[in-house]
């Protein structure tokens, strides 16, 4: 594959510590951009994955830079999911608009945030119609409990959002890691 590009054996490095020529770097970058796997390029040119990653960052085309992996904040993910759940856009449209690599990325977000907090993801109206109304509830105690539960869920959602914003604004981790040992007093 790469040999077909007309590379001479003299163009390749003979020693891993030997500095690579600009021509070799540009050829390696062009190979990756043309669809050759990173591993094949690294093996062919005798370079490490980290070197190739640096070259792609420094010498990769603008089109390649735009295609590469993009990370989203929690707020951005939730906003995209809200648009999809409310029917404002399809998953394919969201992938196109926000430059998301595949639908499974969105499916993973949906799964994660449904588990974390269903109050932040818009619900399906047909499910809301199936919920019992206050006239169907047998006693006022259960009404109070349902109201308290709804308030608790909203409070949790608000606190989660507040923690997310504080972590993002102050750039510190606020949530305690599970299994972390307490400091001695």
UniProtKB/TrEMBL annotation:
Keywords: Coiled coil. It comes from Chitinophaga ginsengisegetis. One of its GO terms (molecular function) is transposase activity. The keyword Transmembrane helix does not apply. Gene3D superfamilies: Winged helix-like DNA-binding domain superfamily/Winged helix DNA-binding domain. The keyword Zinc-finger does not apply. Residues 76-116 form the Insertion element IS150 protein InsJ-like helix-turn-helix domain. This is Helix-turn-helix domain-containing protein. GO terms for biological process: DNA transposition. It holds the Pfam family HTH_Tnp_1.
């Amino acid at each position: 594959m790469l040999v077909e590009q007309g590379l001479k054996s003299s163009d390749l490095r003979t020693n891993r510590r030997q500095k690579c020529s600009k021509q070799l770097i540009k050829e390696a970058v062009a190979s990756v951009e043309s669809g050759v796997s990173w591993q094949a390029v690294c093996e062919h040119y005798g370079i490490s994955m980290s070197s190739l990653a640096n070259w792609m960052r420094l010498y990769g085309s603008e089109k390649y830079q735009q295609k590469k992996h993009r990370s989203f904040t929690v707020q951005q993910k939730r906003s995209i999911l809200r648009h999809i759940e409310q029917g404002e856009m399809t998953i394919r449209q969201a992938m196109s608009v926000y430059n998301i690599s595949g639908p499974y990325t969105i499916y993973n977000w949906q799964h994660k945030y449904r588990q974390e907090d269903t109050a932040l993801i818009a619900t399906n109206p047909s499910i809301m119609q199936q919920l019992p109304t206050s006239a169907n509830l047998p006693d006022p105690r259960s009404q109070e409990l349902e109201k308290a539960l709804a308030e608790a869920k909203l409070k949790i959602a608000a606190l989660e959002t507040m923690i997310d914003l504080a972590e993002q604004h102050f750039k510190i981790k606020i949530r305690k890691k599970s299994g972390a040992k307490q400091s001695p007093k």
